[in-house]
Amino acid sequence: MKWKISEHQPGRRRFMRLLGRAIVYAGAALVSVGLMGRRGLAAAIPALSATGYDWTKHRWGFGVDANRCIGCLRCVEACKTENGVARDAHHFRTWVERYVYLKGERKPRVDSQQDPGNIAASGSEEVYRFDNRYQNAKIEKAFFVPKLCNQCEHPPCVQVCPVGATFRTPDGVVLIDHDYCIGCQYCVQACPYGVRLFNQAHGVTDKCTWCYHRITRGLRPACVEACPTNARIFGDQNDPESPISKFIRENRTRVLKPEMGTSPNVFYVGLDKEVM
Amino acid sequence: MPKHIVRLIFLIGILGAAILGARAVFIDKSFGIHGHYRADAVAEIAADTPIYQGAASCQSCHGERYAMWLKGVHKVVTCETCHGASAKHPSAPPAAPSAPVDPRMHSRIAAERLDHVKLANPTDTVKLCTLCHEKMPGRPATQRQIEVSRHVAGQQCIVCHNPHSPKLAAAGVPQAAKPGDVAAGRKKAATCTGCHGAEGVSPNPVWPSLAGQQRGYLVGALRAYKTGARRDPLMTEQAKGLSEADMIELAAFYASLSCQSAGSSAAAPVVSVGNAKVATCAACHGAEGASSNPAWPSLAGLQEAYLANALKAYQTGARQNPMMAGLVKGLSDADIGKLAAYYAGLKCK
């Protein structure tokens, strides 16, 4: 049956047609008003365009060479200072894990700088160092692994945020808008890597930004700047000569928890199967 | 159109307007420009001030240290890793008080500067250095590590190591001489005896005695002559032909000799120099001029002219050592003369 609605058709069908048209037109009008309201990219980020930074031209990436890490924790110290992270044993944007396989044991012993033994060795929660608890132990294998936000291509933390307070920028960094964050901590739960932390003092979630205020000025993140062994590598993946592009090209890298489908942007070398 | 339908449309219209109005009021202007977030937040986050300034920012005022640091193995450790973040350190050097300044103002500025500019010099270097250099399972083998309790226990690291260029010249010299080294060294030392004496006690005031000298220091000196880091018309030629093994054997031979017969006699008057200056030297060269560290030379009983020449060479840069360069800066010629006489007058042990 062929549907043809005449002008003279009275009653309900005519009304429905008018209503349908009204909805379509109104929708189109709203969308066009919305589009007109959009400003250009440069105008949107005046602070960034002033420094000549164009976020569409960069794709930041981070490398970690666990074979080089000596567990000095200067990265943790630098991060806390640079970003004003609470000086205690519970808030870290980046941290270092120590994995030790003792002879005869199948599972590694894992500790980090917030372990009570390590705090005792440093003498304070505000100072970071690994103690030497394994100096006389029979070691099968031992190594350090620095951890930080993976700035995922598909970040679960962004997906769950109910208020649009966390987002991924075009240059590949997941940021938090502390003005919009309502402190529900869904993102803390959603992150498979446990890199998000809750700032009780301000009631907002916090996370590693790869020092966004530094990298947009052409500086390296503070942890990379502080690392004395080049275990942390940073650069622009769009630039084939950047340290990170070289690192990825010259090494067989791995990401953490690839099965989560998050496509991390922190690339590791020298990880063991137990490192998650 | 029936009245009730018109009313309904009217109501829906009002509701829609109310929603749009509420959006305009409550949602930030920049929300949604780039995605489901407030675009201004990006600029706000990017506007934070960097706290770590980077080593390059230290260069303009601390050029000498910077150059030394850049040449050494510690060039991977940036200034702020040990001295702390320098965000509050002045970006420009303190203004010279050349122009007349309101004294109150000037003192206020100066006080403010002093208040928060000075970066820390780490006091407990053992604690600081062992962060990276304590022998610990998990550290890669390429990392230089020490067993803290067995590595000159109790002494601060900077007594022997220059933190800006910490590698000792004698690095790589075995802790103890191998049994055959002394005999092998004695054979190879035939050419040396012409100037440094048959038993390592030099007959000439300008050439140093070598008997009883620290092995590590001797190897370091020969290496420096070979590489050209230290120059001497005679020694440069001599060292050219020496292999690493030759140097270690020669050093073992001279270290094994007794220096009792060295130039100093017990009767020589001990020149007083002033405690402060000698105390500075004693930290590395030993209280009685007998160094306890294989990397640093013993000075007791060395030739007076040789010692004075060495100090002057450090001053002019003809002889280079990051530690000595800083220490000799403040010495006058008279100081040098006194120090040389003092150490030449000490009895060699």
Report on this structure.
The complex is a heterodimer of chains A (276) and B (349). Chain A is elongated, with a radius of gyration of 25 Å. Helices cover 29% and strands 17% of the residues of chain A. Chain A starts with 11 loop residues before the first helix and ends in a 7-residue tail after the last strand. In chain A, 38% of the residues are buried. Chain A is α+β, with helices and mostly antiparallel strands. Chain B has 349 residues and is mainly alpha-helical. The model of chain B is unreliable at 92-116 (pLDDT under 50). Classes of the chains: A alpha+beta (276), B mainly alpha (349). Chains A and B meet through helix 3, helix 4, strand 2, strand 4 and strand 5 of A and helix 2 of B.
Overview in brief:
Chain A has 276 residues and is α+β, with helices and mostly antiparallel strands. Chain A has helices at residues 12-37, 41-44, 46-50, 74-83, 116-122, 156-160, 186-190, 212-215, 222-226, 243-250, and strands spanning 60-65, 95-102, 109-112, 139-147, 166-168, 174-176, 197-199, 204-206, 232-236, 266-269. Chains A and B meet through helix 3, helix 4, strand 2, strand 4 and strand 5 of A and helix 2 of B.
